[in-house]
Structure formats: structure tokens, C-alpha cells
Amino acid sequence: MRIKHLFIAIACSIAASAQNTVVLQTANGKDTINKNIYGHFAEHLGHCIYGGMYVGDNNKTIPNRDGVRLDIIEALKKLKVPVLRWPGGCFADTYHWQDGIGPKDKRPSMLNIWWGNVKEDNSFGTNEFLNMCEVLGAEPYLSGNVGSGTPQELSDWVKYTSHPNGSSPMPELRAKNGRGNPWHVKYWGLGNEAWGCGGNMKVEYYANVYRQYATFMTNWSNTDRIYRIASGASGDDYHWTEVLMKELPTSMVDALGLHHYSVISWSKKGPSTTFTEQEYFTTMQKALLMDEYVTKHKAIMDKYDPKKKVALAVDEWGGWYEVEPGTNGAFLFQQNTMRDAMIAGATLNIFNNNCDRVRMANLAQIVNVLQAVILTKEEKMILTPTYHVMEMYNVHQDALMLPVTLTSNDYTLGTEKLKAISVSASRDKKGLTHISLVNIDAGKPQEVTINVEGSSFKTVSGRILTSDKIQNHNTFENPDKITPATFSGAKLEGNNLKLTIPPFSVVVLELK
Ligand code: AHR
User: How many angstroms is it from 368 CA to the middle of ligand 1?
Assistant: First the structure.
């Protein structure tokens, strides 16, 4: 008996002192982390656009530029939003862009059938969106209506936004609406969730529809080419990717989409703030499925396109919970806690590490909807923990991805386990190396040793996003409860870098 107890004691002490180790290969980077991985998504849904980003050009109480809130513009510029997808989502396949141009008092209204049957007055349309993107320094990604539109309608939208000046109907219409020069929209989605709200199509049928629409979306020059994104799979629908890769010639498609939400269960999503540890754990299980999905969709794409011409664009991702009590169920307004910071940090690490194929991703959604980076309440605005993670991680944008090999402890709950640590690294154009680490463990700090191969560093500095409860969040009354802080807990010892990451925290290190 005594020997057995002694054995258990030794085994426990080994488990408790087990180290997480990361091998960082600084000389083996070959792929760039496309900045568009840090993209966002704005839909005509709830208060994302109306009463969120856009308060109307006649609003005298909330400072704005052409109706877009100045505080939001400032915050999004700081975030370095590279690309913004619009106008949906499900809304996109009901949207007729010509209803949203010209004098506002002449624009027809429509019913927003997907999101609460509210009246859409079309006061925020193509010109407003594209001008806002210019102000933000973000590239627009227009999601075309394939579900209830026509190839002509989409082809005209391309001409309206991007055809060079000249005497043809669409550039003339654009000029009549106050914009002479084209905006040059590069990114175009051909439908959204074609397997669902975009038309309930089978992929074999959608592939043909895609080819038809793509045919009429003309490039105006070789240097100013449009980038066509096919409506992609949901989660583990590998058949969808297989058929699109087989049926779409690479000359007609630049990226396939992929949508995956971290939802506990569609019938019982759980609250956004008062969740249990079990609900947190399940959310993280769902979030980390992204790794498996990306890996398997990539393997299919590699089979048909070994040169990796076609990208994977994860153009909707994020956490999805019950709406905040007392808010419209169709508006998808939810709070954003340290759980969301964990989803963001771990997911962005997955995208960074798969940047050979994942070259765009769009968090759902930017303001007041789902895993938003900004929440508003009348004149007030707050930045969420997700905002702070995306801001801390923007050092990876367009940097060279450095491969990492990770050995992680488990985060266990009952009989289930997940890897506690996730990591990715890059070197930017100034030669600075950044390592982003997440400890999703809800209870234990994690010691990490990073073994640096191929370079030596003299200094390390860092930032951390942490809090004392996983349910913590910023509120309109206490907007700065969670903000990044300086992290000086990383120590360089020769080629080893050592640090301890508190439970449910994100750390970004900078090495020189
Ligand atoms: O982001 C909310 C909705 O989720 C989008 O409109 C749709 O594409 C997805 O199902």
C-alpha cells in the first residue's frame, strides 16, 4: 500500500510540474500572415449598422462623419481593420444594391426578413459603405446577392463600384451620385451560405450557379483584378469543399469561404456572461474545432490545387450565445467576456499557423452583433476583450509566420480535456519577432518554456490581457475593467524564454 501511495505522489508531482514547451524555429519561416486574417464583418442586422456604426448624417448628438460615428472610426483605425465584409450574411442574398444609391428620400424601403422583419430604409448603401472603408483604410469585401438576385445585377454592381471613368451607364450613374472615380473593389463574395439562407442549394447546383455569376464579373485590367470568393462550407461539410474544388476552375475562383461559430448548441446557446465553467469548456471545445476544420479543408484543397492558388477565407467565425436579456432576439446583441478573448486568441493562432492557405478571415460581427469588438449604447461606446486581443495581435499582420512546435499541458474538466496553451509567432518587416500565447485553463497558471532555434535575442517585452474572473467584461459604466497591461514576466535565459501565463489570459511578446 505504502509503495502504491508513494508512486501516486511521485506521479502527481510530475504532472503538477510538467512544463509546456514551445520550439520556435526562427530560420524556417516561408509564409506570410496575410493581414486580411484580421478582417471583420458588418451586416444589416440589429444595431451593427443602424444605431451602431451609422447614426445618420443628420445626427447632431453623436459626433459623426457622414453619419458614421467618430469614436468608432478612431477605434477601428487603431485596430488596423484590413478588410470589411458587407452587407451580409443572410441579408446579402435579399439585398438589391440599386435600392441603396442616389438621393436618400427616393430610396425604397424593404423588409429585413432574416433579422426581425424590421424596416430597412436603405439610407446606408454602397456609397456610404465604400466611403466609410476609405476613411477606415480598410478594403471592402462586397457580398453579392446570388440567392435572389441576377448575374446582371451583380455584374452592374462591379461596374458601378470599379469600372474606370467613361461614358457607360454604371460609371455615369456613379458620377450622378457624386462619385467620379471608382473605388476599385477587389473582394467579391458570390452568395452567402448558399447551402442555407442563401438559397438552400446543393453544392453540385451552386457550383454551376457560381460559374455563371463569375463569368459576368469582369476584370477591368490585369493590375486591378477582382478577387472572387465562393460561398463555402459550414464547419465539417467537406463534401462542399470537395465539389467546389473539383468543379470551379482556378481561373474563376480566388477563395472558398468557411463558416464556423463557437456555439454550445443551437437550441440552448447559454448566456453570454453568467455561464458556468462547463459552458466555458464546451465553448472552447467548439472554438478549437476550427483547427480540425481548417486542416481537413486544406487537405482537400491541396489535392486539387497543390500550388495553393485558391485561398481559404473563414469569412464568418466567433462565439454565439443567447442575446442579452431584454434585447430583441433577432438582433443578436451579446456581451463579450474573457471567454471571448480566449476564442479570439486561440482562433487567431490557428489562422496564423495555417496562413499558407487561410488568407482571409472575418470575425462576426464588428459592432453590437455576436462576438463584437465594439458595443454601443446611445452616445456611449465600449471596446470589448475581443477588441483588445485583435489589437494586441495586429503585430502579426503581413509578418512572416515562424513555425512553432508545441507540447502543452491539458486543461481538464471532469473526464474531458483540451490543450491549455496555444501559440503562434511571426517576424515583421522591421525585424521584430512576436509570439502570441493563450492559456485557456480556467483554473491553473501555466509555465511555458520557449526554446528559440536559429536566432538569439537580447530583450523581451510584452503585453497581457487578463482578469480575475472568466465572466468579466467591460460595461458602459466600467468600460476599462479589461484592458491590456504591460507584461514583464518573460525572462530570457540564453536560448530559452520562460514565462508563466495566468489562467484564461492572452500574452503577446516582442523580441529584439
Ligand atoms: O452572422 C450572423 C449570420 O450567421 C449570418 O447572417 C449568416 O451568414 C450566418 O448564418
Answer: 14
Question: How many angstroms separate the CA atoms of 149 and 162, rounded?
Answer: 19
Ligand 1 atom closest to 198 (CA)? 8
pLDDT at 180 over 70: yes
DSSP code for 475:
-
Q: Kindly tell me the burial class for residue 143, based on how many C-beta atoms sit within 10 Å of its own C-beta (0-12, 13-18, 19 or more).
A: buried
Nearest to 506 by CA among 376, 391, 334, 429: 391
Whether the per-residue pLDDT at 497 is higher than 60: the answer is yes
Choose between 103 and 17: higher pLDDT: 103
Nearest CA to ligand 1 atom 7: 89
Task: Say yes or no to pLDDT of 11 above 90.
Answer: no
pLDDT of 237 above 80: yes
Three cell numbers written together for 210:
457560381
- Is 324 marked active-site? no
pLDDT value at 17 more than 70? no
pTM score: 0.95
Question: For this structure, is 204 an active site residue?
Answer: no
Q: Which of 139, 193, 247, 391 is catalytic?
A: 193
Q: Which of 65, 184, 48 is nearest to 136 (CA)?
A: 65
Cis peptide before 484 (omega within 30 of 0): no
Q: Which of 40, 86, 192 to mutate to test the pocket of ligand 1 (most atoms within 8 A of CB)?
A: 192
Q: Please give the number of the atom of ligand 1 that sits closest to the Cα of 41.
A: 1
Cβ 340 vs Cβ 349: under 8 Å? no
- Residue 451's alpha-carbon distances to 22, 358, 510, in angstroms, are 6, 26, 15
Site to probe by mutation for ligand 1, drawn from 40, 41, 43, 331 as the one with most ligand atoms within 8 Å of Cβ, is 43
d(CA 198, CA 83): 22
The whole-number average pLDDT for the span 147-157 is: 97
* Residue of 43, 139, 316, 391 with catalytic role: 316
